[in-house]
């Protein structure tokens, strides 16, 4: 009887430890993250993020790849007409990179919609859309890692040029029907 009382708490403690080890969410290694991103990018050049994927692939360190993120608000109830135009231009750049002979796992393009990651918008103090940001392989984004669409617009050509300036990776930009320069207007997001 005494033996059973001593063993029960030990087994219970052991059970908690095992559940804690196997129940905890496993952090991906750098190689696993880069591999998953490469697999996803070969299927879809612009990766769709939510708050969890943003933290997993963009904020997680270490990183040996750059990530370009378009923060947007594409839902019709957000009334961001300019976001659709910017998305089309961004898609041209992403497609040009994906089908380029120099495509590698050193650069990825992604998109985070306000409705899928409003907490990320708040963390980054973003109150308008669209916003294009470069998250470098090392360190945190600096002021120049945000595309100044008020000054240069968001044509696919200008996005590709800015990406090259930030990453030193040249994208063989393929002009499409949407390749015309667009002005730098933004749509405000709700607080």
Polypeptide structure, described:
Helix 4 packs across helix 7. The protein has one domain: Glutaredoxin. Strands 1-3-2-5 form a four-stranded mixed β-sheet, sandwiched between helices. The termini are far apart. With 191 residues, it is an alpha/beta fold. Helix content is 45%, strand content 14%. Helix 4 links the parallel strand 2 and strand 3. It is a multi-pass membrane protein. Its main location: endoplasmic reticulum. It is found in: Endoplasmic reticulum membrane.
Please supply descriptive tags for the structure shown above.
four-stranded mixed β-sheet; two-stranded antiparallel sheet; 7 helices; alpha/beta; 191 residues; Glutaredoxin
Provide a short characterization of the protein structure.
It is built from seven helices and six strands, in the order ααβαβαβαββααβ. The protein has 191 residues and is an alpha/beta fold.
Round the Cα radius of gyration to an integer and report it.
21 Å
Largest β sheet strand count, sense and barrel closure: 4 strands, mixed
What's the tally of helices? 7
What percent of the residues sit in helical stretches (DSSP H or I)? 40-55%
CATH class: Alpha Beta
Order of helices and strands: HHEHEHEHEEHHE
Q: Give the percentage of residues in beta strands.
A: 5-15%
Question: How do the strands line up in the largest sheet?
Answer: 1-3-2-5
Any low-confidence stretches, pLDDT <50, length ≥5? 177-186
What class, by secondary structure content?
alpha/beta
Could you say how many structural domains there are in total? 1
Gross morphology: globular
CATH superfamily heading: Glutaredoxin
Can you count the beta strands? 6
User: In the CATH hierarchy, what is the architecture at level 2?
Assistant: 3-Layer(aba) Sandwich
Calculate the terminal CA-CA distance, rounded to whole Å: 63 Å
* Mean pLDDT metric: 85
CATH topology: Glutaredoxin
Protein name: Tumor suppressor candidate 3-like
Subcellular location: Endoplasmic reticulum membrane
GO cellular component, one term: oligosaccharyltransferase complex
Pathway: Protein modification
